[in-house]
UniProtKB/TrEMBL annotation:
Source taxonomy: Bacteria, Bacillati, Actinomycetota, Actinomycetes, Pseudonocardiales
Keyword annotations from UniProtKB, A to Z: Membrane, Transmembrane, Transmembrane helix
InterPro entries for this protein: DUF998
Identification of the protein by name: DUF998 domain-containing protein
Sequence intervals crossing the membrane: 15-36, 60-81, 90-108, 123-142, 162-183, 195-214
Length: 228
């Protein structure tokens, strides 16, 4: 006789997604405080880039937000992989690259505006470029892969939408960067800070969708077993 039996993930597995979401929530709180308290960061959110927080008195909060986002993303990566949602090695590598590049952005501060170009500043610049692109690529590819699965169609749709919405905000950053690297000039950008912040909101929303998706996938599955 075949009887359904629930298969419950281990306690450690069940804590992956709550841990990731808690880390993301902590990062959002730190970023909100930085934006609201001008004593910690006297910056214009329209013109100042997010990396300028690393040069402000509230640098520890900026670094803390990046570390929380990176660690939460690593937990989310494990959760998505364990449930078979993120099985493609290239996507796993891209998600891991997102985690590592966030750490690099925190560890290597940007060069002050108008100051000398340093190796640390270059590492920060390249890590920022990878950070901006890697998560939207993962969100789009993950949504595309599961778009026809009736269990995950809604999550897949939102994952693709948020990823595609974030990519245009990446262009005002990467196009001047590429032009300046290739031609050695200085192509100015307009309202870079605002563009970055809009992209940040979209990427946080994408992380929340992926977290909710992983939570649903971590629910106990039911399997059948035979009894005499």
């Amino acid at each position: 006789m075949l009887c359904p039996a629930p298969v419950r993930p281990s306690l450690r597995a069940r804590l992956l997604v709550p841990g990731a979401l808690a880390a993301f929530a902590g990062a959002v709180v730190l970023l909100a405080v930085l934006h609201l308290d001008r004593r910690l960061a006297p910056l214009d959110p329209v013109s100042s880039m997010l990396s300028d927080y690393a040069l402000s008195p509230g640098r520890w909060m900026w670094d803390g937000a990046l570390l929380l986002t990176s660690s939460g993303s690593a937990l989310l990566l494990v959760a998505l992989y364990r449930r078979g949602l993120l099985a493609n090695p290239a996507l796993v590598a891209a998600k891991a690259l997102w985690c590592v590049s966030l750490l690099a952005v925190a560890l290597f501060a940007k060069d002050p505006q108008g100051g000398a170009i340093t190796a640390t500043g270059k590492i920060h610049l390249y890590a920022s470029a990878v950070t901006c692109l890697s998560l939207p690529v993962v969100g789009w590819a993950l949504g595309r892969r599961h778009r026809d699965d009736p269990r995950w169609r809604r999550f897949a749709t939102w994952s693709r939408r948020l990823a595609l919405a974030a990519i245009p905000f990446y262009l005002p950053f990467i196009v001047p960067f590429a032009v300046n690297v290739v031609f050695g000039g200085h192509l100015p950008t307009v309202a870079t800070g605002l563009v970055e912040r809009l992209m940040m909101v979209l990427e946080i929303a994408l992380l929340a969708v992926l977290g909710h998706w992983a939570h649903r996938a971590m629910r106990p599955a039911r399997v059948s077993y035979a009894t005499a």
